Amino acid sequence: MVNSISELEFSNDKSTEELSQVALLQLSDDAAIREKSSTGVPEKTGYPDPVYVMAANVFQGIRKEKSPEKVIIKYGNEPLRSSAQSEDETFRRLSYELAFSALKYQDILETILTDSYIFPSTTIPDHLSSLIIVMLYDFQDRKFQTRVLSENEEFISEVQEVENLLNSFKTKLAAALARCRIKHDALSIYHILPETVRKQELRASTLPLYAWINTCKISPEEVYINLRKKGYNEVKSVLHIDDKVFAVDQHCYDVLIFPSHLKKDLINIDLFKDYKLIFQDKSRSLAVHSVKALLNMDDDILMVNTGSWYTVAHMSILTSNNTSKIFVCGIQSQAKDPDLNLFKKMGCKNIEILRETFVNIESKDHRLRKVKVILLLPRCSGVGVSNPVEFILNEHEDTDLLRDLSQGRTSEDKLQVLAQQQYEQLTHAMKFTKVQAVVYCTCSVYPEENEAVVKKALEFQDYGVKVPPYRLSPPVLPLCSLKEIHLSTDKFFRMEPSEITNGCFLSILTRERDPSEAVSVKDVLARAAAKGLLEGIELEKSSKGEKKKKKSKTSLPKASGNDNCGIQMKIAEFLSGENKASTNQSEILTTKAALPQKNVMQVGSSTQVRKPSKPATNPLMPTLMKKSCPSRPWDQQTQFRRPRPEGKMVALKPVEIVLPPVMFPFSNSQGIRSQMPAPHFCRWIGPKTRMPGCLPTPLASSRGEKPKENSPSSLLRRPRPWL
Fold it and tell me: Which domains are delineated in the chain?
């Protein structure tokens, strides 16, 4: 029982009156603030008795320990007896939130209790100290108003005792709170908290809600229609909007975003009651979508430290159209988490639970022979989430982390322990030889848990196995802003804590060859032959072919007898009037480019052709000179000419690249024709017609010499009017 002293004697009556005035002023100010800030949100009326009891037990396990000389309030080790209602999920969540709030203000609440003379003026059992702390926090949060009780509510004797005690010290508690505010020059006890914790609470109150669509039950289009019928409008951003709106996430196509103030309204609609929409932090959706982008149709997945079963369900929904199977490890028994029964309600069928912990699973386990991707969600500090309670309940259930998160930071010793565990799990995941990718995701902003762990694992990975080593791969998620592109320059995907999302770190490791290693053509052909893509083709095993190939690039192409006959046949086709020049144009241009460059010498802006010592330097000359000449001079055509109407002269234009002409023997000087190159073909111009601006074609008219018929030197000395 709690035995309180009926009257407390103060040394000065004047101070007692001043304290009462301060207390009344505090109550009036709080009431005025409450009236001004009322926007239809119901005032807090307190919690049911089982919530207080469970919150006291949680606080007992996470409270901050003090040195013996600084201990003012003693806490017992015996937990309070909880009722059957404590197993309810709603009661459980409320209890953790209340315990975490009391933990953040533990020092302030203890000061208020001692300053108001509740301690040591009353004889309070030690096992009730935790209950007094959590109920005092709720009492001041309700502005010291009386708790409203329902008729059918369960009453617990310990809770009733502590409540009566706090009500009897109501004025003194309010005065002690006012003095604490004045001492810290703070408007409220909220402003006494560290800045990191204040920012965290502010983000938690305004952070949008993220919910993914269960596409096994409903399509996204049906969800949009259903929401519009209920008065929700689709927008691009839900920030600073008080109306009923929603938006589609830019990174995950099946994730919707809602304003935070709509949560109470949303949880009561059928879409959430029937598991067609599921609330979950966006970081987990980013992780499962990254895995989905790396999968083939029949690849299996191993999920490690999944925390929330909703993450497993989301992965199952995304792979429902595949033949993939999802293995989940780390669950000791099915009774540990009753949410396993939700899989049937949500339509998940391809999930298998492994009872072993991840580090105890062998890399050659026959059950995991088809696993190609491992999703590793290691236990992390969680410094980067706005709501630590949601993070603990949904992901890891490690209440020890709440002690660090209540101060907005993690101790160095705790951080080193977490980083070592993460490194061991990541290196173990890299030992599975048939696995082709590992997705590593945390909710932390500490590099010690993120980049440092990944880089260390890559540096010390085992290169002895006969599989390609792991290398860092760029993100497979879309980068939707310049900030995201900047944060992902080193191939890590990062999201900093902000007003729209929690912090997130994501890394993808894939088995790939070093891109700096040159892959030879021989290796590529060998792989193709191994896959049966080169049936009937023999690969050259010696490197002589490569050497000959290199020499052939600098040597002249030799025309064989068959090639010459083919050329002569094409010339005959042109002479017969068939327009087939377009089909052979590429061969002609290739032949031109392959002519020897040593016979062309550029001096200033002119081009000169050296006299060859032998007339057979041109590969086309020997064959063409042996052929009989046609009887008509206008039949002296080559395959460089396209058919045109006779008697029509086309004005030619000079080109930038000039190649040596191909000459043919003629019976007399009257049949000699000069050639002029066009942009894509050459034309032969007769001597009877003279183009304006062109030199006469006979050699005698230009140099005063008589040409020698059938002489190679005279044939090569034709005038070049394009110069």
Answer: 49-193 (no CATH), 282-515 (3.40.50.150)
